[in-house]
Amino acid sequence: MIPAAFDYVAPTSLDDALAALAEAGDDAKVLAGGQSLLPILRMRLNAPEKVVDLGRIEALRGVRDGGDHVAIGAMTPYAEVVGDALVREHAGLLAKAVETVADPQIRHRGTVGGALVHADPAGDVGAPVLALDATMVVVGPGGERTVPAAEFFRDLFETAVDDGELLTEIRIPKHTGWGSAYEKFVRVSHQWSIVAVAATVRVEGGSIAEARVGLTNMGSTPLRATAVEQALVGSSASGLADACAAAAEGTNPPSDLNGDADYRRHLATVLTRRAVQKAMEG
Amino acid sequence: MTAVDDRPTTEIGTARRRKEDRRLVTGRTRWTDNIQLPGMLHLAMVRSPFAHAKINGIETAEAKGAPNVIAVMTGHDIADIQGVNITAWPITPDQKSPDHLPMPLERVAHAGEIVAVVVARTAAAARDAAELVDVDYEELPAVLDLKAATTDEVLAHPDLGTNKSAFWQLDSKAGGTGGDIEEAIARAREGGIVIEREYRQQRLIPAFMEPRSTVVDPTGEQVVMWTATQAPHVLRFCIAATTGLPESKIRVIAPDVGGGFGGKLQSTPEEFITLAVARKLGKPCKYTETRSETMVSAHHGRDQWQKLTLTAEKDGTVTGLKVELLADLGAYAALVGGGVPVLGAWMFNAIYKFPAYQFNTTNYYTNKTWVDAYRGAGRPEATYAIERLMDELAAEVGVDPLEIREKNWIKHDEFPFTTVAGMTYDSGNYEAATARAKELFGYDELRAEQKRRRESGDPVQLGIGVSTFTEMCGLAPSRVLGSLNYGAGGWESASIRMLATGTVEVVTGASAHGQGHETAWSQIVADRLGVPFDSVEVLHGDTQIAPKGMDTYGSRSLVVGGEALVRAADKVIEKAKPIAAHLLEASVDDLEFSAGQFTVKGTDKGIGIGDVALATFAAHNYPEGVEPSIDADATFDPVNFSFPHGTHLCAMEVDTETGATRMRKYVCVDDIGNIINPLIVEGQVHGGLVQGIAQALWEGAEYDDQGTLVSGSFVDYTLPTTADTISFVTDHTTSPATSNSLGTKGVGEAGTIASTPAVVNAIVDAVRQFGVDDILMPCTPERVWKAIRSGGGTQDAATTPAQQAHFDEGTPNQDPAAGTTDGVVQ
């Protein structure tokens, strides 16, 4: 597969990247790992005039301790996120979700920032980031702004990152001591999620004190199951089914070869219960 | 028929690592796409997006003007030399076969068909310019569904007047091999058991690792074609038969080829178009497809509806089997094409003693990609049907599925056994394979666990699936093929050249594409001639080096080609004998040959075969009246098929809350006769199992209502990887074949044929308690869950309403047009 010809730039600083984007206008595409973009180009589903590769901007890569939050550079590959001690300790849910992305080769190339801005509803990064109440740092010609995860995902393949802007960092409030689980339902291991549920809970005295639940591929964006979160407060491990029954309420999942919308709604309910149960166990 | 040879061996039976793997695994070898010729041009195909359309015109001017473009051609430009993609097996004299031009001039009959070709200095330039070719299509009504095709309301090829290609029947009463099936059914309806089912063989895509690629060099006296094919000899014949090029002017080379599974036995439009363009321009040309092109244009496999009627006495003794197939050929009759379902005719009765049998297939055209052989070709379909039915019969009678099989199978002391379909099975021992499989499986323990889970209402239920399969391999006795109107023979050839310096060149007409022929053939020759394994070089896949061959498919290479090799080796020994006797000053009658040495009986005089080869090369001293050559050729035409068999046992866990299935244990004990290289056999069995399991669980080619292949990439055509499979337990029992001196039966297809019903039987067994007796393949979690919920099969239950990914209409923010990730990996 051969993509249509395009200009390629690989700036080494954020400023240069923003300048390159500004110069190209809306004919540019950002390459942030390329695990979605390259197939799109090769299958000629898109033919940008310029591709701006962020892969050489060291400042966008890595995880640091931000005090009350863990700050993840947008260009940090999945594999580094999975193995990072800070992420595992303070945002275990994200590590568990990212661990399930595709296959090892893709996890070494693909980046969390790239996945978030691509905003495929079947991607595995959106739901945990949403559930963990992350803050996204977006930089553009006008400077830096922050966007709460709840306002980040606008629609299918559409986020709060506008043309000419870049996502630079994901700040995840520390959920130290919270249990977490990512229940991903697929037919073959490297597949996009048919449905997945991201759950993280704080347990006090055997029952849930706080719960956060995110849903993957249950609508055009990652979703937060807030009704379930509220219902779960005070639940013990034996009483989860009722609290999770409403997991699919208000969702609008797709129908495709892997299952119709009703089946996905059913899955969401079962998987939510299982995810919360596992999260309670750690 | 040859008695099985029992001479001592050292190489045969040794688990040697394959000598070809270093170059194949590293890729530092001659894959077709690696070939670069001076001045070579590159091709890009323009393909129809429509399933059925009239070509009103093709505007090529803009593409011709694009940078580095040399030419843009349509069917009209190569009409005089493009040839025809022929079918080798018209199954009846009146079979309807639409003309299949590599590049049609007037009408396309499936999405993906080629309408124009762009030739440029680079592959990228060709691809860019292909986007500029403007084709004026007039869409025609398309028939996509196989059952809809039978009504002839919409015609795949209006000129044929019908979608029906042919009807073919095998009837045991008419053939004198058994009783009257209708009588058996009538009797069973009165006081016996009648099991009536309809099973679906979904459409599959042979996903060979190396995409197809062709390079043609028209300069020089012969036109040379390198191509990723498993059938170079067949391809040369097809080119000669249809393009006007004399056969003697065509050299076809299959260099290293990365897998085929039947998918590369085709003579393809792409090969013919590359040849035509190269000849028109007088320049070397290359075409390498993308995976997306493979998915729509390389032939697909299976695609049948199977209506089945099995009759039995109340105690489970089978009395009859009636098979009525609808087979979807896709848009054209492919090379084997309509013959693929026919290959199942002798296998539905399998290992069981049916007194009455009838097989019927009616083949239809649709506006989908053409269908041909895919690993097993006809036999997996048959095995699936009968092994599923035997489980249904066991459930009806209320006995263990192994018990119902044992009641009906051919006993080991009944071989050779002529079946109700007229095949004579030479050897086998179903009892032994089954006993060993049960032991390795822990059958009784797993049945006990299944009972416990049922009784406790465990959300995860356990099912056990059985498949006691057989297959017919070693395709094929030429006279049998002739009687079936097949367009060629089934022999195989081998040559052995004894080189002066002591090494040996072996030429085989089989054309390996990943099987390990080079290693196995070397082992056979090393034993037979007593030369070191490393001294044997195996040459294949080039019609100039291996001029005679029928290539590799249908588990034939070792069974047929191996016997040709043995006979060639024996001829070498016979030819060397008088020369050795002359050199030893002894009588030919006093010579013995063992371990590479000719010795004179009762003396210590001897000479190695390598020394005889050198002496023959020098030819200074050899007997009068003998030619100075010990090289030999042999062509072997088998007199019978071989019949591998085995018992496969599979345990599946079914999560009743989600419908997800998980393989718990898989045991297979195959009887493939004598084994040349156990490591190669393991590879064939493991790979075959995964491919068969994939049909049961994962793979399926799905079209939408417009005739677009929805599962057109590996995102939606869900091939498994090692991460999705478990470790299999494999073992063997051995009843040597009596039809060849090595006693081999073939192993290339066994795993694929046997495993599919074992898996589905296990899933159905797990959920039969909920009233389920069938689940459509692939058994997706959604289908399993819906079957449990509806308490029936999914045969009639609605599953996914539309195959194309979509969101419900009328809801905000759910615009499918906004983009889709189909075809995109993360």
Task: Set down the secondary structure blueprint.
The complex is a heterodimer of chains A (282) and B (826).
Chain A (H helix, E strand, L loop, with lengths): L6 E3 L4 H11 L3 E4 L5 H6 L7 E4 L9 E3 L3 E5 L4 H6 L1 H6 L1 H7 L5 H6 L2 H7 L7 H6 L3 E6 L2 E6 H4 E3 L2 E2 L6 E8 L5 E7 L9 E10 L2 E10 L6 E2 L1 H7 L7 H5 L16 H20 L2
Parallel strand pairs in A: 1-3, 2-3
Antiparallel strand pairs in A: 4-5, 5-10, 6-7, 6-10, 8-9, 11-12, 12-13, 13-14
Chain B lengths: L20 H6 L14 E7 L5 E7 L1 H4 L4 E6 L32 E2 L5 E7 L2 H8 L3 E6 L6 H4 L14 E8 H4 L5 H11 L1 E12 L8 E5 L5 E5 L4 H12 L6 E4 L15 H13 L3 E4 L2 H7 L3 E12 L5 E11 L10 H5 L13 E8 L14 H19 L3 H8 L8 E2 L5 E2 L4 H12 L1 H14 L3 E11 L7 H6 L8 E7 L5 E5 L8 H13 L6 E4 L17 H28 L6 E4 L2 E4 L5 E3 H10 L13 E5 L8 E11 L5 E11 L6 H20 L31 E4 L17 H18 L13 H10 L36
Parallel strand pairs in B: 1-12, 10-11, 14-15, 20-21, 27-28
Antiparallel strand pairs in B: 1-5, 2-4, 2-6, 3-5, 7-15, 8-13, 9-10, 9-12, 13-14, 16-17, 18-26, 19-20, 19-25, 22-23, 23-24, 26-27
Helix pairs in contact in B: 11-12, 11-20, 16-17, 17-18, 19-20
Organism (chain B): Phycicoccus sonneratiae
Pfam families (chain B): Ald_Xan_dh_C, MoCoBD_1, MoCoBD_2
Protein name (chain B): Xanthine dehydrogenase family protein
